[in-house]
Amino acid sequence: MNTTMNTIPFLDLVTPHEELKEELCGVFRAALRGASFIGGPMVEEFEREFAQYCDSQYCVGVANGTDALRFALIASGIKPGDIVITVPNTFIATAEAISQAGAQPDFVDVEERTYNMDPERLQDYLENDCYFDTATGKTFHRKTRRPVTAIVPVHLYGQMAAMDDILELAKDYNLMVVEDACQAHGAEYFSAKENRWKKAGSMGKAAAFSFYPGKNLGACGEAGAVTTSDHDVAQKIRMLRDHGQAQKYYHDMEGYNGRLDAIQAGFLRIKLRHLAAWNEARRESARRYGQLLAAADAAIGLPYEPTWAKPVYHLYVIRLQNRELVQKRLAEAGIGTGIHYPIPLHQQKAYRGLYYKEGDFPVVETVAKEILSLPMYPGLLHTQQFEIAEKVLNLVSVIPAHEQGQRAAAAFAD
Question: Is 99 exposed, middle or buried (0-12, 13-18, 19+ CB in 10 A)?
Answer without folding.
Answer: middle
